[in-house]
Amino acid sequence: MNIFKIIQDIEKVDGEVYDRLASRRQAFSSFGSFGKKVALAAVPIAMGSMFKKAYGQSSNGIADVLNYALTLEYLEADFYMQGLAASGAIASENRAFFEDVRDHEVAHVAFLKSALTSLGATPVDKPTFDFSAGGAFPDWNSNPQTYLALSQAFEDTGVRAYKGQAANLVGSNEVLTAALQIHAVEARHAAIVRRIRGLKGWITNDERGAGMPVPTQAVYDGEAETMQAGIDVAAVSGVAAASVTEAFDEPLSKEAVLNIASLFIA
Q1: How many CA atoms lie less than 13 Å away from 102 in the CB half-sphere?
Q2: Which backbone phi and psi does 265 adopt, to 5 degrees?
Q3: 3-state secondary structure 207-247
Q4: pLDDT score recorded for residue 104
Q5: What is the rounded CA–CA span in Å between residue 157 and residue 212?
Q6: Which of 10, 210, 234, 243 has its Cα between 20 and 30 A from that of 41?
Q7: Which residues partner with 227 through β-bridges?
Q8: What does pTM read for this prediction?
């Protein structure tokens, strides 16, 4: 979850959001032009100021969207914090990698909380998470293989969820460029987790991969697609269908992401 998806979700709450903020290009050009190097701490202040001008302090809809994003970031950050705190969840050779991922998620949480505060809204409290998913993963914090499997599921979900919003950003070259920059890094994270598990860095058909528990299948449903923009890529390329599905990663809907995340909220 990130600023670009948040903006798109706000547009669903208020279809006139861009009119309130002036034009898309004008409202977000600053993010595109200096966002590559801007300090994370400055972004919530800028975003809060922008929304205050557009909505004032009374927009419950925007606060709801930001708090939804914060809840998802709480889940990811907590997963990595608890995993690193557990004695048997993470193999020593993978610890440095997961420390980096934890720091990324903690930064996302701090960003969203600051953004909500700048709007005069109250950030939601962190939910109680059950990463065993009601007992489906009883050894998630004591078995490195189970922990890696869940990390793969969370990371693959994040990549597909982010991609699901990309088409909605084509109206602004600046925002789309920045979004693709972020998306590329998120995809690399997912690929690293998959490679640690001895898998390909990409998804074949709708296969969750060796060692992935059955409850994670929802993360991979819909990936066995060979039709792209109305073109049967397998037919026109002569490439095997399985390889075509690897060449194109599919988006995941917001509803599907929510269903997956809800499994881990107590």
Answers
A1: 15
A2: -105, 120
A3: CCCCCCCHHHHHHCCCCCCCEECCEEHHHHHCCCHHHHHHH
A4: 84
A5: 14
A6: 10
A7: 232
A8: 0.70
